[in-house]
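User: Structure tokens for this complex, please. No commentary.
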Amino acid sequence: MRNIKYIVKLFVITGLIAGQSCTEDFLDEFPSNSQSPDNITTIADAQMVLNGAYDFFQDNNYYNCNMITENDCRADDMQTAEYGRKDGIYLYRYTASAEFDDGTWSLPFALIRHVNSIFSFVENIETINEAEEAVALDIKGQALAIRALAHFDLCRMFGRQYSHDKGTSPGVPVVTTVLNPYAKEPRNTVAEVYAQVIKDLDEAIPLLSTDIRLGKINAWAAKTLLARVYLYQEENVKAYTTAVDVYENGPYTLMSRDAYVDSWSNSGGSSEAIFSVLNNASDYGGGSSVAGLSDPGGFGQFIATQDLIDLIRSDPGDIRNEILYVDQVSDPVDPTTWGRVLKYPGNGNTKAIIVANQETGSPLATVPYDCNVPVFRLSEVCLIAAEAAVKEGEVANAKKYLNAIVERANPSASVSANADVTLDRILKERRKELVAEGHRFFDLVRNKRDIVRSNSTRIFDITTPLTIKWDDFRIIFPIPKSELNINPMVQNDGYIGAN
Amino acid sequence: MKQTALSLLLFLFCAQLSFAQGKTVTGVVTSASTGTPIPGASVMVKGTTIGSITNMDGFYSITANNENDILVYSFIGMASQELAINQRTVIDVALEEDAFGLEEVMIVAYGTAKKASFTGSAATVKAEKINKIPVSSFEKALAGSIAGVQVSNASGQPGSGTEIRIRGIGSFSASNEPLYVIDGVPVTSGDIHNSYSGAPVGNVMSTIPVGDIENITVLKDAAAASLYGSRAANGVILITTKHGREGVTKYSFKSVYGVSEFAVDNYKTVNGDDFLMLHRESMENYLATGNAPADFDVDTTMLGRDWVKPEEGYTDWYEHLFRKGITQNAELSATGGSEKTQFYLSGGVFDQEGVAYKSGFTRYSGRVNVTHKMSKMLKVGLNILNSYTDQMIVDAGSSYYNPFYSVSRNCFPTEGPYLPDGTYRLTLQSGYRNIVRERDLNYQDAKLFRSMNTGFIEFKPFDFLTFRSTNSFDWINNDESNYASPLSRSGSAEQGYIYLYNRKRITKTTSNLVTFDKTFNDIHHLNIIAAQEAETKRAIRFNGSGYVLPNESIRSIGAAAIPHSVGGYDDGTSMLSFLSRLNYDFRNKYYVSTSIRRDGSSKLGIEERWASFWSVSGAWRLSSEDVMQTLSVIDDLKLRVSYGTNGTLPPGYYDHLALYSYSSTYDNQIAASESSISNPFLTWEKNANLNVGIDITLFKNISATVEYFQRHTRDLLMDLYLAPSVGAGRTWVNIGEMDNTGWEFDLRTTNLSTNDFTWSSTFSITSIDNKIVKLNNNEDIISDIYIRREGEAYNTFFLPLWAGVNPANGAPEWYVVDEDGYKTGEITGSYAEAKPGVAGTADPDFFGSLGNNLSYKGFNLAFLFNFSVGGKTWYDSGEKSLNDGSQVKYAIPVSQLDRWQKPGDVALNPQRIWGGNNGSSSESSRFILDNDYLRLKDITLSYNLPKSLINKASINMITVYVQASNYWTWAQQDICDPEQRVNGFAYFEMPNNKTLTFGLEIGF
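Assistant:
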């Protein structure tokens, strides 16, 4: 009898356990931090996806490091101090399979895929009123502008400059849809990429808000990009009018001389910052970001060349002397002697704090990587206007916009004689103003000027190339092996396949 | 006293059961070889449930039904005997040693089987074989023991894991590890830590003390493993923990003391004088080329880099970073019980210092295994393990904080970790940070607690029918912390940081099994099982980090000024299964078995969620055939064949879903991005196994097994790299097919067996041919240095082919290859012309072991050799280290001394030139090493004190022993330890250790 009781109990327990597991959805499990894209239905959801696009900018493969360091280290104003980071880039040793970070290629494409998905989300949102409709369109505009920027950046790194051959050589694939995972897109020409970029920006600008928003793209940022694209394309008249539109009609003003040095350590940006990638204390690129590579207490290998230091030092009244922390570049083994550009000091780390930290060990205000990375700012707009004007022979206009920058740096150094307003003078000013922001390399190459590193630049490797001609094949990065292994694209001249 | 009372009770009990006034028989059961009585031997009346057990003196009493009944005498490890009563009242029986364990009962999938009648391919390892080796987890002790099983101890760090491959590599991207089942419950295995650089060091199996294990069965083919269905493609390892037995409580105390160091020299670098000499030479050669700038001067350069002999002499960095690690282990266990309640209790402490300073592993564990017979038909049991491990971790892989990486790369003999005034040097000549300082200031540790609880209820209403419900709750909690001092280089930017991770793995399983087992007419034996199972697993993580710590002593996250990040997840997976198996044998001569299992898993796409796995096998005991009786040399000959299917699940929980992840932020707002592309057709990898085996026992002293197997896997899961221009990274798909074909030969002999002296040997050899049969569109996949190509092994190296050094000028040379990567016969001096070619595979041609066991009176000497022939290893550091002068920031390996110096030299390395010699150190097969080796894996000398001496103190057994692991190695390459990861990639794991151990075991 006792046994029967046990038997019954046994079956009941077993049945309960078995029964519980036999429900239909026992085998349906969902992750805790993710959801199906079918759940993206409201404006707020689309906004989060758009934030995901900006999150890509924070990747060290893009604006938080490579977009700046890998281009600047190939020019004559910035270099890497030793082996360990970007030395393969500085030494022009990269090939499709070695010394080249293929994230520089793959990340912008991941960003392009991401923004392409935003269009279908936005279309499916049911907006309830005009205000929401405007927000939805603004989201679409940002996505378009980001797509344009990503294509433009890829094309100028992996394709020949438009000015060399009117864009007839291979550029990068133009991707305007969310691709099938097994797609193997061929390369479009540089001209086709530029055409798509301009088309996207033209479509985006009317949709975008004109309010100031530092960490995100607005109409002014899109216009700055458009002006830059026209400049690269040598469409000087269009570049000029677009740049002047931003300068005269936008809500930005050049930061003052007094505010200059410490504005770089201000997380709120400055009066002239149009679009910067925002990093904060819990969300940043880390030790390998451009900020970490500029930090004397960090890896600190991204340093100014002696040429650049000498150039800035040649005018003692120039405020930009103050953003050089050390002005000599010497001993390879002693990092304290390496010249650094303090554009990425970290939120609240004014120059005084940095000097105190290095000299007496007093603490910094924050981790250095907690620092914004400028993508578009008004100074560049002025310089675009000046360059475009001088190329069209409009000396008066060129002088006006050139002096806006020159006088801000040193009020007594303004350029007065028309004969002094030359392309070289403007490029020199561009060099001093936009150093360490990823421009110099392209400025030289698109203007068909050779890259010349003088021997006074402290080189740490005897094989450093000193003169690189503007049409050397290494001016263009190789399509990486990880792409060619799957997608047999045309490789850039001079590189041997996937080797 | 207690015993006699017990036997009396037993006697009465038996008497109660008999239907009539039956025939009573008594006697003594002894061991034929030693003459000593066997307590606990079983005596049964054949064909009934009437049974009895011998007492401490080997005495039994049993009442059979009538005089013609047959009594069956059996004991584990002994050959059973069946004797007809034949009107006797006293029957004494001497049981023979079952030398080859044919009568032994093996633990197999969902039950037990006699080795003699098992139709599948399985190998057993008994506790005694592995419990003397002082390892943190039992898999490390399995190396070489089992044919067909490759055990690779790639890391010597205490608490680390081992790679086990049963019959080759079955999967491209999903797991290749076997399924581990403990006491009938599949358990979590593998690495449980946050991923640090390098091989995993958080092996969850190290929570289980080796001393608790009774035996291990490795299931290799479909017949053995298919019952585990969707997780069994790579084989199954069954572990059974010790259980109680009726009788006086027996205690066992074990104590072990061992000393470890690296087994061989790994990545050895040159001493100070050679270091200076080699750099000088490369600079002088550079000058001789005429390419040097006018102001290049050798002495100035040497001085500028501080490359001079220091006043205090050269530094041997090994002294500062490594030591002899001490291992200590103490275990106490008790086994005992009554007829109704039986228990096994154990408690132990295991402490192992790593060879690297500041690495180590400590474990405290306690176990209670209890069974209780509630009534004649009902039995319950509970196995509880509580285990706490505390591990100090050093980084592995290429992390700067890996002392092994540092000493091989960044540490030069021309300077030491301390400045002349005794303070730490901050930066080394190589430009890297001082590893000694970083190690002293920072730490990484993990504290793991596991509670594994398995309970069962067994209801046996009739002797042929059993219902068993096994339910298990396994709770693993892992707390890791990673701390960097504000003074250290790694913590300087954050002004000190602390990262904390808490990971939990909670697994609940239920398995409800019914077994029908009956013999009809003494001829037909039928065994049928059916079961339903369900399992849920939850993986939970919570982590936080803080920056800016006040000073170097306060290491708590509460004191961090900036709370940096918080994260976590709570994810789960579940599985539902139904299974059944039928075994039939006829007269112990013909055996047939078939099984089926149906699994449904939450990890699979909606369209492919359920699948069935089946197996069919048969065996024919040729030696039972009448015709074979004439061949008296053959004691046993069995032929068996099996064929069946099993599978492998995708590794991730949610790989089939389309997902957007919300774990990122931008400007403190939530950022969502695509994390997974939908694949509703994501399904299992399907593994079809064919196995043919012959088991033979000859001359009573030789036992051999020959097996041939074929493992064909299709729908292989590939983490497919997509074109970067697609922007999606990778996605899981089922494409591809792979074969593993091979044979195993296993031999066990008793060479000599006298009263005092026995000598037995084992030999096993395995050969596995691994080949990819089908890839997506027959397209080669190039993955880092490997190529996946149809017709080649999975781990095939694909690199520019090194042709050696030109004896005329000391320049490097490579082979020119054709489109498919095979040599054309030409040689070039230009690396740009050297396209990658097929450069061999990591898989050995064959591997195996040779063991011997000798005993004389109380002494026992056992030793085991492992060998492997034909495998290759990729020496990853070679590209940077064997640079022939092109790099200044790396230490120089000893192998660079063999270099070209003048025309006519035949040398291993090209001429050293400051700045490099024509790209000689570029990635190529120059760094592929032939990895044949022979290793004395284990040698143990033990002595059992004579019983006469110790019985006076009421002690049953005292054994003292000396044991050495990995103490002698011959390897074809002298760069690194020959035991590397199965894929042949030698990186910077903490090298394997050799250990010398002294042990004491007392049984009382």
